[in-house]
From TrEMBL:
Protein's name in the database: GNAT family N-acetyltransferase
Keywords attached to this entry: Transferase
Spans annotated as Disordered: 33-52
GO MF entries: acyltransferase activity, transferring groups other than amino-acyl groups
Organism of provenance: Rhizobium lusitanum
Length: 186
């Protein structure tokens, strides 16, 4: 991993939304993350709304900044909405296509893990396309363990593709009881 320039990880701001959308759309069009643009990609207002909702509910939503440019972003949402799952998040992470392979994803991952742990979450789950070598390597580096394989759940570029499910614990994980009062009622 090379890291020549200074990258700052900070909570995202409303003014970052357009840059985040540019990064996301490029990966949809060219990447293996989604691979299919069904004409239903989020609009700036969708992303703005999602970011605001997450922020209001104190879910981490961070950007990587180089100079004054957004070169990546990452966020976590609840794994499932039912109350029993309130200590478990699933996450997404995207790096600008000109900046992949330079350590930005690792910085974002570190920032997101720390923010999720600090917010009291105990487990973090990722779904990764089985062909996404960069994402598999990134997650392995941060201690995520493969906990499942979902065969042939995606269809793109003329073939069925598997999804790998990865997980790691945060903070004390399952070694202690959750805090009182529960996160959801704070
Ligand atoms: C996946 C992604 C976030 C990784 O971010 P990145 O900035 O390129 O990753 P880093 O440079 O921090 O590298 C992290 C690790 O992955 C490895 N890696 C990076 N690109 C790789 C590749 N193409 N093949 C294999 N390993 C790779 C690095 O060597 C590094 O491991 P190391 O520190 O042990 O050497 C980025 O490629 C991306 O945004 N991809 C498109 C969107 C996406 O797939 N998101 C993830 C959805 S689950």
């Amino acid at each position: 991993m090379k890291q020549d320039k200074t990258i700052v990880i900070r909570p995202s701001r409303e003014t970052d939304v357009d840059a985040m959308l540019t990064i996301y759309r490029r990966h949809i069009r060219h990447g293996i993350e989604d691979g299919v643009d069904d004409g239903d990609t989020p609009q700036p207002d969708d992303l703005r709304e999602r970011r605001k909702n997450l922020k209001d509910r104190r879910f981490p939503h961070v950007v990587a900044i180089e100079g004054d440019k957004v070169v990546g972003y990452a966020y976590a949402v609840l794994f499932r909405k039912r109350p029993a799952y309130r200590y478990t998040v699933k996450h997404s992470i995207y790096v600008h296509h000109d900046h992949v392979g330079q350590g930005v994803g690792s910085l974002l991952m570190r920032g997101l893990i720390d923010a999720c742990a600090a917010a009291g979450f105990r487990q973090m789950i990722g779904y990764i396309d089985a062909d996404n070598a960069a994402s598999l390597a990134l997650h392995e580096r941060f201690g995520f363990v493969r906990v499942g394989l979902l065969p042939a759940v995606a269809y793109r570029y003329g073939r069925w593709a598997d999804t790998v499910m990865v997980q790691r614990s945060l903070g004390p994980g399952s070694t202690t009881q959750p805090p009182q009062p529960p996160l959801s009622r704070r």
